[in-house]
Amino acid sequence: MTEQAHHEDKLVGEWETRDSALKFEALVQLVTSLLTSGTVDDLDDTFGTVLPVVAECLDVERAHVCELSQEDGQMRIIRSWPDAVQPDMVIDDVYPWSVRRILLGEETVISCLDDLPPEANTERSACERRGISAFLTLPLAVSGLSLGCLTVAVTRTEQRWSEVQLQRLRVVAHLLANALERKRAGEALRTSANWFRQLVENAPDAIIMVKRDGTIALINDEAERLFGHAPCELVGQSVDVLLPEAFRHAHAKQRSAYGAAPKARRMGTTGLDLIARAKDGRELPVEISLTPVDGKNGLIICIVRDVSGRRRLEDELRAEVGQRLKTARVQLENQASQLNDVHHHVTDHFRILSDLVKLQQQRLDGNVPVLEELSEIQNRIGAITSVHEALSTSDTLESVNLSHYLARVTRRLRSRYEADRLGVAVVLDVEPLSAAPTVALRCGLIVSELVTNGLKHAFPGDRSGTIGVSLHRNGPNTWELAVRDDGAGTAQSLDLDGLGIRLVEKLATQLGGNTAFSADGGITAVVRLPVAPEGVRSAEVMGADPPLSTSSSVA
Asked: Could you tell me which of 499, 487, 215 has the C-alpha nearest to residue 369?
């Protein structure tokens, strides 16, 4: 070849290269324009328009775009050129080896079918059937996520793909990948919009979408039914039209303040009634949930719930409960009255019994041992009577205030034995404690026996002194009931086999407790009870009266 001929060939090659580059530049401009100007719904058709241009620019006979389905994860052809392949054709089973590489984000460059590995026999058979001798497959990926693929193929004997072809196909693949991402985003947006529309339309509550300025932008069917307004009557109007006239001015100020700093909140759920107004003038109690939606329009979703039915049921229930409580109160009052009558009758019977004992004492004048026995019997009758007297004046028939009850018991004993005249003080120091009547009775009998013993024996002659009665918590697990005197009693004079002492021990055992006696400058008897013997409760629980003054003399 002459030097001149060589130069001419060089010029022709440069021209052909320049022509190819210009074609590709035009292709990129065309693809960019088509993919960005159309709507999401037009993208599949746009792919069909782009493919023949790509085929011409790259000098190939076939091209197709595949998309990875988000629903079933299968790879489908969405457009091909020429239109020999059925759209929506699944290629997972036809080209399994290639699909795996696409999902891994790998390019496939096949210059002849002999380049296919043994594991790609399915691909080889499919290419032979379709007359394909070489192909290029590039993943369509965004941020490493495969969305589909772009494939071009030739039917010539073989095709040695140049780096220029690969680079150009990568540029086109990048553009198509962005288009697929846009398509997916548009479909997702449309799906969300459809879902939201269905949600709004089928919601059981009224939904009103309001702009930041208070203008109604949308209402659902339930809002139309609740307020009686057609959408055309409300859209574009101020939401204030749905309020009674008297509230509109104040609401406008509140709405303006809310629009300046909107946040999700609920109203009408804390006892403060919210009132809405229907088209026919009806006023409806409602609950409202506000949710601001970010966006250029600054919409606020208002969910309005009609609570008139619930309020009506609440009123009916409240009235029914009130009536039942009234009936129950009357029944309890009747029962309490009947029980009080019973306690009065019992008290009267014990008084009659006490009077009979007095008559018997008068007939036995001079028989000191028997008189003393009868006197102690009267004391026990008095302790029992005091329980019923306490119950007849109590707000509850289930418990007895021990402070007041023990004061009654000791007051009777002071009077009977003329303690004031003898100079003997009986002092109570009792915590505010209440107990069931049966428990109170046993405590009263214990105190009666011990105080009687002190009044009779602790202060012989003209000796004066004090008898102390205390009831206190003693640690976390016990109560302590104690009767102490500073009289003349000694260890030798303490008769532990006497009837009174044996009765005290018996009563303490019935309460689940125990007794201890000591003599050191007088007699001390201590009865320890469980924290909660059956029927014993703290006054705080039972609502007992305040305690008597500590160490105060009983009047």
From this structure: 499
